[in-house]
């Protein structure tokens, strides 16, 4: 790969602006709606992508995919309704920022973190592809068990205010995650006789119910979603708000960089996706922060970490797809189908036989991100005004439209009813102060954790020591232990420092 | 233990508060049940239009123009995105069939 070749690829991709732009707009619209994931949209648009030239199809698919990841954060920030599982962690700090009247800043942070997080990881992937493709081989089920535990510890972090209720919510989520067919023996568990639950509880209806429907049911108690002060700020939203968001993005540039790499590494592992990356990034960001107690109250870092991570995943999932021929996620699998239809054999040989496709994918991604920032940034000012719509209008629209969206993923009418059931569960949780995000973490990570754990134990024939059998795994265990101990160490040191200061005063 | 110490209680009152919002909340849940049940017959577009109009009425919107135009403004883009552009498998009803018939008529002309 020479610089001339790369420059040529960038020129080709910029020339495809007429495909990239509509794909970005469609990706944003579909991404805002919870329920329509990029893979669904791409499957529905297969007749289009199969009919055009392979470069055009790739540019279209990649732009739609990246825009979709970015847009999931928009409803998460404005209405506490994540557009996808990857944006669920964004609600933790994004929505409190909206309530404080900083919706515009939060949106800009979400956009810049997504775009630059995506751009940085894409460029890194372009340069380090041969080495990065090895990560998928190194991180096996044993190591992934620990990565999942990293995500699960976020339950404890969220539960900081009411530990018992947080844990109950988390375990409730894990219990729901158990529903479905067993990974090894294929025995249906707790499916209540519903065939639709044999694949486990589908994430999208759960997400829609727990966040969107329940939020709408709570929302109708008040006239508006935000208080008087927030409304006044939304009315007087100026371009200055966007500039302020940009200033904050520059201030936290390092946060964007390192959390996006968390996303990249997790994205490379086939099967792990944006939601786990976002949760782990949020948990790590809080852990290494100087003021962890402020997380959850609406601070910029809490928006940046999950957004940069879930866009870092986009290039990560394509690494094993192109380098090994193993799709890193369901969207990558659809892209693989399109590439194979066009006669591309994926795997290491692709880089020598069709370098313009292999590297072109990542160049297309970088170009899509560049286009995206100019498309979406000016919209932040107008999007933030959505909080000015009265809840008498918002509540029924949110409930019915998101219930319709619940149909989207698997196209079962059953999923709409399931979303409503989760909506009622979410409402009860809201009213009794159980954290819905803790339930969702259990639902998302529970099955993944179980799958990796059971697979490891199957390999070792039931010997638990396999979990401590690899160097990388053990290093991750040590880091996990450290991340659990660090908060205690920190409070102990603070107390000691406080005691020393008091002692000094007395003297 | 906390219940015994009167620090916590097991009453269901917080679930129902505030009482004035309760009829609207229960109404919205029931409306959604009817909406899901009616969709296979009415199709996506019509059931969403009627469901939204009923939902808005339930929330207290009484202006007929608001009821009709808000519901239309939501149902029309949903039709365009999911049925016209993405051609997904949502239930088709009178509206979808009528539009399909009309467009087929136009396509049939030379």
What does this structure look like?
The complex is a heterodimer of chains A (507) and B (110). Helix content of chain A is 75%, strand content 1%. By secondary structure, chain A is mainly alpha-helical. Chain A folds into two domains: 3-387 and 394-469, no CATH class; 470-507. Chain A has a two-stranded antiparallel sheet with strand order 1-2. In chain A, a hairpin with a 6-residue loop joins strand 1 (180-181) and strand 2. The longest helix of chain A is centred in the first third of the chain and has 36 residues, at 103-138. Chain A is globular, with a radius of gyration of 22 Å. The N and C termini of chain A lie far apart (69 Å). Chain B is mainly α and 110 residues long. Chain B has one domain (22-108). Chain B has helices at residues 13-16, 22-59, 64-85, 94-108.
Write a short abstract of this structure:
The complex is a heterodimer of chains A (about 500) and B (about 110). Chain A is mainly alpha-helical and about 500 residues long. Chain A has 24 helices and 2 strands.
Question: If you compute it from the alpha carbons, what radius of gyration of chain A comes out, rounded to the nearest whole angstrom?
Answer: 22 Å
Order of helices and strands of chain A: HHHHHHHHHHEEHHHHHHHHHHHHHH
The radius of gyration over CA of chain B amounts to 21 Å
Q: What is the CA–CA distance across the termini of chain B? A: 81 Å
As a percent range, the share of strand residues of chain B is under 5%
Any low-confidence stretches of chain A, pLDDT <50, length ≥5?
A: none
Oligomeric grouping of the chains = heterodimer
Tell me the strand percentage band of chain A. under 5%
Q: Major beta sheet of chain A, specifics?
A: 2 strands, antiparallel
The number of E-state strands of chain B comes to 0
Number of DSSP helices of chain B?
4
For the largest beta-sheet of chain B, the strand count, sense and barrel status come to: none
Poorly predicted runs of chain B are none
């Amino acid at each position: 790969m020479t610089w001339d070749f790369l420059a040529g690829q960038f020129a080709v991709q910029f020339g495809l602006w007429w495909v990239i732009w509509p794909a970005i707009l469609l990706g944003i619209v579909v991404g805002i709606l919870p329920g329509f994931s990029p893979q669904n949209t791409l499957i529905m648009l297969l007749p289009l992508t199969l009919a055009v030239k392979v470069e055009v199809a790739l540019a279209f698919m990649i732009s739609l995919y990246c825009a979709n990841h970015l847009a999931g954060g928009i409803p998460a920030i404005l209405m506490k309704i994540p557009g996808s599982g990857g944006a669920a962690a964004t609600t933790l700090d994004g929505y409190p920022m909206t309530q404080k009247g900083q919706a515009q800043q939060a949106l800009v942070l979400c956009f810049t973190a997504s775009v630059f997080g995506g751009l940085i990881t894409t460029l890194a992937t372009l340069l380090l592809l041969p080495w990065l493709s090895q990560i998928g081989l190194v991180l096996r089920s044993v190591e992934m068990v620990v990565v999942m535990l990293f995500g699960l510890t976020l339950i404890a972090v969220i539960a900081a205010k009411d530990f018992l209720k947080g844990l109950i919510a988390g375990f409730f989520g894990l219990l729901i995650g158990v529903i479905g067919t067993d990974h090894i023996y294929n025995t249906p568990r707790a499916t209540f006789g519903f065939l639709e639950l044999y694949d486990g509880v589908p994430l999208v209806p759960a997400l829609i119910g727990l966040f969107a429907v329940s939020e709408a049911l709570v929302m109708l108690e008040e006239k508006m979603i935000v208080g008087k002060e927030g409304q006044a700020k939304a009315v007087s939203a100026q371009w200055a708000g966007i500039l302020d968001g940009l200033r904050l993005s520059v201030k936290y540039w390092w946060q964007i960089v390192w959390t996006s790499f968390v996303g990249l590494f997790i994205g490379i592992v086939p099967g792990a996706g944006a939601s786990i990356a976002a949760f782990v990034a949020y948990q790590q960001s809080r852990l290494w922060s100087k003021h962890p107690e402020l997380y959850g109250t609406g601070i910029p870092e809490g928006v940046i970490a999950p957004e940069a991570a879930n866009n870092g995943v986009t290039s990560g999932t394509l690494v094993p797809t192109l380098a090994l021929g193993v799709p890193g996620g369901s969207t990558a699998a659809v892209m693989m189908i399109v590439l194979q239809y066009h006669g591309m054999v994926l795997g290491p040989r692709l880089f020598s036989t069709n370098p313009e496709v292999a590297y072109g994918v990542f160049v297309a991604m970088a170009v899509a991100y560049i286009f995206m920032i100019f498309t979406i940034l000016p919209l932040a000012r107008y999007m933030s005004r959505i909080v000015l719509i009265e809840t008498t209008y918002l509540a029924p629209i949110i409930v019915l439209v998101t219930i319709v969206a619940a149909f989207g993923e698997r196209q079962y009418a059953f999923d709409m009813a399931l979303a409503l059931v989760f909506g009622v569960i979410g409402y009860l949780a809201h009213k009794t102060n159980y954290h819905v995000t803790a339930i969702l973490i259990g639902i998302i990570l529970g099955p993944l954790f179980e799958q990796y754990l059971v697979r490891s134990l199957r390999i070792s024939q039931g010997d638990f020591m396999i979990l401590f059998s690899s160097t990388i795994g053990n290093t991750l265990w040590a880091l996990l232990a450290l991340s659990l101990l660090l908060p205690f160490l920190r409070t102990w040191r603070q107390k000691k420092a406080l005691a020393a200061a008091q002692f000094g005063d007395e003297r | 233990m906390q219940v015994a110490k009167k620090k916590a209680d097991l009453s269901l009152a917080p679930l129902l508060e505030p009482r004035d919002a309760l009829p609207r909340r229960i109404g919205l849940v029931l409306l959604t049940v009817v909406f899901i049940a009616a969709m296979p017959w009415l199709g996506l577009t019509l059931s969403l239009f009627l469901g939204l109009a009923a939902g808005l009425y339930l929330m207290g919107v009484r202006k007929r123009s608001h009821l009709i135009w808000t519901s239309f403004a939501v149902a029309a883009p949903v039709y365009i995105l999911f049925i016209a552009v993405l051609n997904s498998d949502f239930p088709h009803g009178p509206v979808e069939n009528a539009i399909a018939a009309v467009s087929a008529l136009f396509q049939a002309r030379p």
